[in-house]
Model the fold of this input.
Amino acid sequence: MKEFTPESFRLDGKVALVTGASYGIGFAIASGFAKSGATIAFNDINQELVDKGLKAYKEAGIEAHGYVCDVTDEKAVQGLVKKIEEEIGVIDILVNNAGIIKRIPMIEMSADDFRKVVDIDLNGPFIVSKAVIPSMIKKGHGKIINICSMMSELGRETVSAYAAAKGGLKMLTRNIASEYGEYNIQCNGIGPGYIETPQTAPLRTEGHPFNKFIISKTPAARWGTTEDLMGPAVFLASDASNFVNGHILYVDGGILAYIGKQPQ
Ligand code: NAP
Ligand code: GCO
Done:
């Protein structure tokens, strides 16, 4: 049993893979890990995005390792993990961040669109976790953090595929925690509230009714920022959380606790 010290929150000597981390939430989480001592590997869907990410990490003073890889392609993911292990080292921390959303009323949504969202947001985390767990078992420890959502708990119009995927991701998190906890692997989720990133940009346009709505539903009375997620992610990636397993940590400014402010 490691003695608790302030160093328990550090990630020195750890290798972290954050998927879809050229920008947005993944970029912020990876940056927080780097500030805490971790070596960063990230992937994204094409070379242009990877290059954009590498430039942004460098500007932030972070020497990251970037790879092109689609998280839904199992063969490519197996190859990515092998390459990271050869070039950097065994992955100690995995953040399944890559994700998409399609906002379409369910009865107007094609089955292909539904499948694509579930494939990236749920099958992707399964494929990448399956690829990294064997080496974590051999190494004797591992941290897996799945980026869930308010939609792991709540539904709303037009996001049926996304809610189904993120609800499934909550249960995949709990199942990985159950199946691999005995190998000192902790699997938890982070459920961000409504965060200012490109993914939510369409909801934050000037005068968009959703903007006011979210502020009224958030006790913190603001949209979250990617920086709000860095500390919770470092906690779940560190030794400070070695007995936290199967938990979804909602970083939502209080949305899930609040009935909402009455209209003025
Ligand atoms: P984002 O800005 O859209 O970034 C997602 C990243 O994942 C992008 O770089 C994206 O590349 C990449 N990606 C998409 N499909 C991929 C694939 N098949 N393989 C590899 N990379 C892929 O999203 P975000 O707002 O930062 O969200 C990141 C995660 O947090 C997502 O899982 C999202 O569901 C979740 N989340 C977001 C919020 C929020 O309010 N923003 C709240 C709760 C949860 P492209 O640019 O090509 O799409
Ligand atoms: C939406 C938003 C949300 C956020 C996030 C909330 O359309 O409702 O995109 O889904 O992305 O998942 O936690």
Notes: Residues 19-20, 22-26, 43-45, 49, 70-72, 97-100, 120, 147, 149, 192, 194-195, 197-200 surround NAP (ligand 1) (CB under 6 Å). Residues 10-197+224-254 form a domain with the Rossmann fold fold (CATH 3.40.50.720). The first strand starts at residue 15 and ends at 19.
